[in-house]
Amino acid sequence: MSKRDELIAKYAADLKEKCGVNPDMDLLKKVTVGLGPSIYNADAATVSGSDDKELATVKNNFLIKKLGLKNDASLDKAIDAVIEKYGRSNRNKYRAVIYYLLAKHFKKESVYK
């Protein structure tokens, strides 16, 4: 099993155990591949739910640039809802899991097809 496949399995386990979501493995793999080499960097692979700068990066680079959404209050609400679902006290919030949940939330799976 490759390192990437191990990480995808870890992200799938997080989705099931911490978020109560049965993941679409094809979409999860595409989201993970889309993150490129950042998944192998411990700092870049996670998202700090309490760091406003980090959350702005998720909003600007993923929701607006990647998913093509308009910048409005619904983006911040969605990020907050995903962080809440993942668990605010959970120290390791993986970027791939956050992006997966946001893509599902906005029904933008087609971006990865």
Can you walk me through this structure?
This protein has 113 residues and is an all-alpha fold. It has a single domain (3-112), classed as Orthogonal Bundle (Recoverin, domain 1), CATH 1.10.238. The chain is built from five helices and no strands. The chain has helices at residues 3-19, 25-34, 52-66, 73-86, 95-105. It is globular and about 40 Å long. The two termini are 24 Å apart.
Alpha carbon gap, first and last residue: 24 Å
What is the fold named in CATH at topology level? Recoverin, domain 1
What does the largest sheet look like? none
Number of domain modules: 1
What overall form do the CA principal axes indicate? globular
Q: CATH homologous superfamily - what is it? A: Jann4075-like
How many helical stretches?
Answer: 5
Q: Approximately how much beta-strand content do the residues carry?
A: under 5%
| Coarse structural class | mainly alpha
Rg computed from alpha carbons, rounded to a whole number of angstroms: 13 Å
Ranges where pLDDT stays below 50 over 5 or more residues in a row are none
Q: Report the CATH C-level class.
A: Mainly Alpha
- DSSP summary, beta strand count: 0
Which percent bin holds the helix content?
A: 55-70%
Whole-number mean pLDDT: 96
H/E series, N to C? HHHHH
Second-tier CATH architecture: Orthogonal Bundle
Key structural traits:
mainly alpha; 5 helices; Recoverin, domain 1
